[in-house]
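> example.struct
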């Protein structure tokens, strides 16, 4: 196949850009059905308590209320004990939660009952009529306290739900070789996903008895969890995904879908459930807060000798995906550096806080804040330029990491850091009360799910009689252009224009299952599946055309709906003629292909000593900040981000991901802090929970590097999550450069900076 692309790597228009601007997209909450009921969730207002009495009689008696469901109405299933699985298992730990609480509340906001009524107002009124009597139980809110033997137990007899380790070389000997040692403790906050669209969906039962749920989902495979809860065959549950108004991991776990299915199953009627902004704030998971103790050693010439780290994550009240997130943190904890001696101990701990789970970066950005702060502190102690120190220690292709994985793709970190720093230009002058600083940070982030999960993705491609193509793929579109990537790949392989390819996506009973839009896996998995299916269709066409043209198949190409000889371009056939010939001979130009990621054996011990991920994306971000000495306020003046994406599929979308990741990382670094007091949420709305706006962020200079060495289609690497990890440490390093103080607990709010300046 040709190497010069017609579509791949160009700036491509989007499938839905115009409709989104005009407001024509039917998002989850926009969808309505005749006879539809409106649902609400009754939630606990205790962080740790026993339910002594639950009275729903007044709510049931309210005119317009059709049903009120409690835990007693959830079908009893001995195999799952009224819990729904969250995707899969981690070792022997099943990540599950209660559908509705029956006896014990473990966090403030936990779901206790469901209401379905004829109108939204009636459903809200019914919630006010539900009465519950609690008996307070001991609680624990600090993960370090929760690790102690005498701490109140959230589940079972141990709050530590996962432990992972790295062991490489001899850390003690490595520190003995070091001329300089830096030791610090860092803390990162709980972070709200803050996507604009709430969790929402509509469910109904069709005339075949199948429960249909149309909702905003990053994982349509949750239809299996729904079937498990209801105790019905999986074939009787259909999930139809929508275009998603933001997710960032917030719509990866089960949210509204089980509640919807239960209510439709009970009433036989269509039901809509949309979370309020308040519920978005406390009714679902957040990013894990971490406590990170780091000790790093280096020789006087800047070679790293040893790393020792202790990582503790707050999982909240339920397991969810915490063990997986901890795996990511553990593997990435060394940073993108070759360190001969490593000792890392990581734990995830249950508390009575709101549960923690998937969030963009998935355990990678918490450790990035720590390891990049350490690198700048080492450079300062050594009297060395921070980039020079990093250059001496960057991983390179062929190196073996502390988790014993070989780096098989290019590592363009030096180029990325150099270009990001250069893009800032000369440092501003500042004033007596406002100081200017430059800072940068490097990061690595895996893309694709962990290899022992045996990840697969399927795609079906068909050429119609007129030469246009239809693609069916189960991959949801999270807003990052997942459908567009599949369309561009298919068009490139089959020599079509973008508008000649139609993509049908996200329907568990219509499209082949492609897996989740998580773990920066969508392009890697569904893109490779689309490329494989398209290449198989192309092979059918080329082999048929070779007979018609009396030419070797490998010397034929497809472009502009023609098949032609690369040696004699005038020797060609209309694509439609070849398709008709194929159809006449029963050689249908269609293919269902499944891409299989590399498989490895499961992690069988708590020491990670085998490859875990398919590959890594490397990058760097740089910031110029202004710090007000009188208030501690940080103003970002310039921002540059450089990442090796392997091969850009759509430059517009790549730059959009880099910009979006940087902005979200900026929020993590200096603004966003989801606060709880004794488990009670304090910052559940966007008035108190501050996120960056257009006034807080300068134009972001996106620098796209393309090594063509990735595992994705055409050598692409994932960029969705890698674009966020370096942002927070870049800001903190810039603040240090500006005013000489280091922030060890982010976000670096004006209050924290002001107090640090006073000290």
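> example.seq
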């Amino acid at each position: 196949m040709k190497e010069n692309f017609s579509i791949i790597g160009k700036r491509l228009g989007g499938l839905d850009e115009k409709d989104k601007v005009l407001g024509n997209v039917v998002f989850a909450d926009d969808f309505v059905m005749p006879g539809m009921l409106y649902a609400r969730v009754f939630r606990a207002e205790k962080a740790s308590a026993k339910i002594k009495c639950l009275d729903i009689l007044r709510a049931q008696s309210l005119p317009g209320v059709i049903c009120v469901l409690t835990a007693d109405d959830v079908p009893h299933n001995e195999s799952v004990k009224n819990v729904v699985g969250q995707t899969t298992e981690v070792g022997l730990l099943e990540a599950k939660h209660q559908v509705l609480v029956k006896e014990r509340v473990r966090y403030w906001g936990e779901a206790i009952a469901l209401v379905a009524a004829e109108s939204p107002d009636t459903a809200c009124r019914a919630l006010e009529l539900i009465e519950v009597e609690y008996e307070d139980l001991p609680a624990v809110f600090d993960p370090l306290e929760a690790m102690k033997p005498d701490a109140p137990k959230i589940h079972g007899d141990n709050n530590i739900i996962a432990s992972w380790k790295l062991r490489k070389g001899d850390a003690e000997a490595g520190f003995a070789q070091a001329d300089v040692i830096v030791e610090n403790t860092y803390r990162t906050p709980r972070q709200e996903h803050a996507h604009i669209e709430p969790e929402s969906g509509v469910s109904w039962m069709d005339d075949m008895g199948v429960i249909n749920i149309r909702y905003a989902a990053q994982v349509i495979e949750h239809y299996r969890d729904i079937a498990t809860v209801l105790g019905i065959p999986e074939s009787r549950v259909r999930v139809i995904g929508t275009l998603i108004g933001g997710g960032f991991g917030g719509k990866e776990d089960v949210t509204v879908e089980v509640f919807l299915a239960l209510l439709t199953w009970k009433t036989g009627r269509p039901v809509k459930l949309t979370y309020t902004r308040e519920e978005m704030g406390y009714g679902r998971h957040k990013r894990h807060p971490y406590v990170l103790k780091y000790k790093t050693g280096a020789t006087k010439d800047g070679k790293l000798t040893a790393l020792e780290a202790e990582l503790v994550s707050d999982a909240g009240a339920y397991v969810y995906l915490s063990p997986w997130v901890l795996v990511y943190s553990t593997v990435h904890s060394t940073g993108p550096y070759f360190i001969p001696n490593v000792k890392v101990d990581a734990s995830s701990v249950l508390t009575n806080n709101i549960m923690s789970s998937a969030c963009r970066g998935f355990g990678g950005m918490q450790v990035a804040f720590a390891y990049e702060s350490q690198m700048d502190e080492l450079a300062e102690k050594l009297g060395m330029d921070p980039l020079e120190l990093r250059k001496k220690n960057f991983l390179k292709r062929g190196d073996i990491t502390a988790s014993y994985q070989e780096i098989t793709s290019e590592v363009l970190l030096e180029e990325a850091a150099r270009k990001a720093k250069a893009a800032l230009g000369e440092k501003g002058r500042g004033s007596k009360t406002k100081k200017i600083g430059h800072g940068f940070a490097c990061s690595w982030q895996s893309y694709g799910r962990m290899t022992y999960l045996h990840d697969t993705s399927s795609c079906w491609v068909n050429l119609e009689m007129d030469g246009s193509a239809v693609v069916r793929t189960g991959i949801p579109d999270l807003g990052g252009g997942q459908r567009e990537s599949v369309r561009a790949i298919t068009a490139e392989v089959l020599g079509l224009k973008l508008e000649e390819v139609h993509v049908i996506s996200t329907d568990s009973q219509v499209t082949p299952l492609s897996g989740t839009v998580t773990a920066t896996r969508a392009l890697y998995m569904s893109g490779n599946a689309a490329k494989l299916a398209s290449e198989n269709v192309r092979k059918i066409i080329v082999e048929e055309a070779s007979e018609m043209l009396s030419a070797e198949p490998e010397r034929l190409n497809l472009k502009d709906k023609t098949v032609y000889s690369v040696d004699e371009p005038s020797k060609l056939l209309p694509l439609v003629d070849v398709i008709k010939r194929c159809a006449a001979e029963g050689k249908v130009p269609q293919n269902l292909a499944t891409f299989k990621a590399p498989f490895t054996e499961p992690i069988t011990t708590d020491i990670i000593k085998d490859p875990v991920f398919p590959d890594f994306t490397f990058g760097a971000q740089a910031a110029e900040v202004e710090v007000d000495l009188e208030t501690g306020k940080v103003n970002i003046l310039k921002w540059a981000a450089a990442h090796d994406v392997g091969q850009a599929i759509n430059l517009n979308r790549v730059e959009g991901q880099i910009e979006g990741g940087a902005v979200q990382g900026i929020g993590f670094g200096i603004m966003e802090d989801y606060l709880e007091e004794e488990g009670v949420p304090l910052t559940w709305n966007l008035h108190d929970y501050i996120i960056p706006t257009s006034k807080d962020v300068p134009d972001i200079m996106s620098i796209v590097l393309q090594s063509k060495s990735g595992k994705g289609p055409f050598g692409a690497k994932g960029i969705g999550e890698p674009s966020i990890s370096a942002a927070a440490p870049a800001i903190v390093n810039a603040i240090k450069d500006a005013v000489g103080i280091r922030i060890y607990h982010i976000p670096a709010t004006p209050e924290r900076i002001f107090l640090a300046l006073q000290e």
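> remarks
The chain has a mean pLDDT of 95.
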